[in-house]
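Folds abound. Consider this:
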Amino acid sequence: EFNLCCGRAPLDPAAKERVRLLIRNGLNWSEVVAIAERHRLSPVVYETVAATAQDLISPEQLNQLREAAAPTMAAGMALLRELLRLHQLFEAAHILVIPYKGPLLAWIAYGSFLRREYLDLDFAVEQKNIPRTVAVLESAGYRPQFDLREAHAGQNGFAPGQYSFLSHPQKILAEFHTERTLRYFPIPVDFQDLTSRLMTVEIGGQLLRTFSIEDTLVMLSVHGAKHFWERLGWVLDIAKLITAQPVDWELLLRIAARMESTRVLLLGLYLAHDVFEAPLPAPLLEEIHQDPAVQ
């Protein structure tokens, strides 16, 4: 409950008071830290406690939260720098590579690169461009973590679950997804359709194209469902995104329907609403409540 309230606190003043009350009533602090780490909530919990309840805890307790969040924050900044470097390389090679999740999601949903935990970089690229992508990344110091014959899978050969690359010596993991690897969607992904709605985000003076808010919400919901929503941080991502950014709800439902992912999307939205009190339009809530499978 304490971790959930920390996630709700930026949106709900009552949650801030609940955080303080829970601390006063006594907590197993090691368990608080362990849950935050397991659910990828360490930066949010640390920031909330430091801002709203620092007077109620010992310096040692605050330091435990800070130490849990510190590696995430340091890794996040390193990944951001690498994202910008790779973006320049792919722009120079004239390959459309779309970054998503990771630092971009932290920026557009949380308003900060430090409030969301992410451990790798995710990109989408057309399957036909994988051989060229391999060449760019190898020249940038990355080593493919797959059989290089899979780079030439095209539309018929075997494609891995993702094309993973590891940089040396930094050990940064970059994962590239294509219309062939994103096979946990109910139907094949239409890359041309996705790229027709790209939005532009400015970071560090660079203009990066990423998926629209609506496409991102569908992708986050499918990803969460794929992993049975085992981490609360994934639910918080959706709650933060729909709170921070304007959503074209009609477009969102059309995209999900085309991808045969409506129920998956509704579940993701309902979790964000139910767990973190993210606001949803009344007609959408009514549709959710009418679906017993989502409930």
In short: The chain has a mean pLDDT of 94.
